[in-house]
Design a protein that fits this description.
Distance between the termini: 59 Å
Number of strands: 4
Radius of gyration: 22 Å
Structural class: alpha+beta
Helix content: 25-40%
Shape: globular
Largest sheet: 4 strands, antiparallel
Number of helices: 8
Amino acid sequence: SVWPRGHARALRTGTMGAYKYLEELWRKKQSDMMRFLLRVRSWEYRQLPAIHRAAKPTRPDKARRLGYKAKQGFVVYRVRVRRGGRKKPLPKGRNNGKPVNCGVNKIKWKRNLRSLAEERVGRKCGGLRVLNSYWVAQDGAHKFYEVILVDPAHKVVRDDPRIRWIAQPAMKHRELRGLTSAGRKHRGLRHKGHKANHMRPSVRATWKSHNTLSLRRYR
């Protein structure tokens, strides 16, 4: 197997930094300690509102890898979303159409639950910009995510050349337009080259260009 970046050096020197240590702990989610922690945290998160602000990231190593900084202008929200498929919202299960479209129960949602969590937080905190998100816990009925948000009007953010890009008007509601990491994943943009030819700029744009006949007046 291929070791993650920096793992071989840490093993060779016999030392691991704090963030590397946390990363290795989260990598082994089936260990007794992590199973106990995740079970207790899932219980705690179930008692809290579906969307609430976290005092600090539950996974500081993961949050920092995704762009979080422990300074003014950065906040973390924790979200609870229901697991499972998406039942078709039909009144009493009637679609008043053809039998081929009568399915109600075994319908799957095209997007992933992480992008759904980002969308809900983005709607709740309309003045903030969604930077990224990550998984923290799950149980039989819910998944819990933490979403990193940035205040585009904060002076600390606007003065930092590494994060001021998110204050641009084009970055409003990135999560609603599939521009975050979770959004790019469900759009199929993690793949390149073979079998990904129809993914860019988007599946719909490619279909439209292939199915549009343009006849010039003088040809």
